[in-house]
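Final report, results section. Input specification for complex C-07:
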Amino acid sequence: MKKTIITLEDVWKIYVMGHVEVAALQGVSLDVYQGEFVSIMGPSGSGKSTAVNMVGCLDIPTKGRILLDGKDISHLDESDLAQIRGKKIGFIFQQFNLLPTLTALENVSLPMIFQGIPADARAARAEQLLTIVQLKDRMNHRPSELSGGQQQRVAIARSLANDPEVILADEPTGNLDTHTGENVLDFLHELNRKHKKTIVMVTHDPHLAKRADRIILLKDGQVVKKL
Amino acid sequence: MLRDYFFYAAKNLLKRKLRTWLTMIGIFIGIAAVVSLISLGQGMRNAILGQFETLGTDKLTVEASGTGFGPPGSTVIKPLTLDDRDAIEQVPGVELVVNRMIRSVSFEYHDIRNFEGITNLPEEDKERALVLDVLNVKLAEGKMIDSSDQGKVVLGSGFSRDTRYGKAIHAGNKVLIGGAAFEVAGVLKRSGNPFFNDIILMNEARFREVLNIEEDVDLLVVQVKEGADVPQVQANIEKVMRRQRDVEKGKEDFTVQSPLQTLATLDTILTTVQTILVGIAAISLIVGGIGIMNTMYTSVLERTREIGIMKAIGAKNSDVLLIFLTESGLLGMAGGLVGIALGVGLAKLVEVAGAAALGEGVLVAQFSMMLIIGSLLFSFIVGTVSGIVPSYQASQLEPVDALRK
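Structure output:
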């Protein structure tokens, strides 16, 4: 039987805007299994980003439970959540989100600093990861000196820094041209197949979504279909 | 980890060079002012206190109480007399009593007349030696007068250095003092005490004749016997003087002071002046601190997204707090470093100007290790404290909100 790594149980997220309450998620329940590649799809405003924030421990639900590795994280404080994120989850964002003042190598090392890993071990691991994403020769460049595709590959390397179980990719190809986007997706696939990482990818592109094992379709804050 | 934060902070500050410099100005002006004021203040203190050291701790001075400012004895109601002096000489523990007088007198040379300061030299050898020791003056030319040289005087360096009398006065020249003719036997070397540079030294007998003084004495310097208890001798002198001048305890019209007391009084005054000056300089540091706070607020606003990223990849609130605190502390400390360099330069400049005006080695700025390390530490603290509120605000940002910026 497949092991569940993330479970959302009847998760609600309600934002209060002035006097109006907006429910971004309305009772979402879903499971992510270890080692699978799952896509979350839906039109804008469907709540897919909110859902992925919940899965990534970036946000806590107004109602409902989130289980990570069987542990309820719905009521943890920010510092505990940060600890969990640092260890168990790797993030890849649409805008790459690298720190502009740091080189590729330093960007990849950063998550390891927060986990208290010694400098030597950090540098060795960061170099190894940049080699995997084929950027060893660019590791001392700053983000502004790299192309979009290269920046996203640095971000992929960074997401692997602490050897997390889950990689969350929020529209990872959204800022890239088709060819580069495909290339980045190839890397994600490789992570899934070769490195056995669980991948949750948010996208609105059906073509990309199809490359996942499974697609979860969201609309108006609810799961409408699981393919 | 702190080393990494330090490194990251330095990178961020270097990225915004102009802003970093502008922010640091407030700190470095403050620190430069503090460093230069304290080092020069310490130098000034050493210069002044150094004058006292020549007096020694085994001497006491007796003065009649004055009504205002002026040379010792010049404003008193009831002056000291030679009788007072004789009475003090009888007090047990007293080795020697020397009367000192400082007056002004008309001085004429090269048909130009002015008033100049003049002081007496006792005829008795031991007393004379004590006075010369206390004055700590050295000859630049000619020779010192002895008690038989009643028609001769010794002049301060000022007389030979400037031309206030049309031309410089040297040993061998003839001058008129109080209308009487004198020969200049010698001229003194330039002294750290500007007063001694314009003084006339004259034997006491002639001094009293020329200035028409019979019994009065301006100041008595008492040499205490070796091994005697100075405070006890001081108390005994006070007792004798009360009887001598017929005054009750607490209503004395004279004071007996030891150089140590004078030193302590002077030290208190100097410390007060210095504290006020440093206090004023510290205001600039507060302004500098507010500058840092403002910059850190701007930085937190600008880097909200960066904070979100760091939190997403595992930075705890405490990590973010520490990162920003390191940055503001570094900003303060860098400002401090520049400030110290500037302050040292400024003090050295004043020292050079002082050497030209007062003479070499009189005012020497003192840079103690404590001053340098203290300033650096203080600037670091100002930076860190100013960063507390903005850094706390940064640490409390919700990652989801921060990432949306």
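Helices of chain A lie at 48-55, 78-88, 104-114, 119-132, 148-159, 178-193, 206-209. Strands of chain A lie at 4-17, 20-33, 37-41, 63-68, 71-72, 89-92, 166-170, 198-203, 214-219, 222-226. This concludes the modelling results for the funded period.
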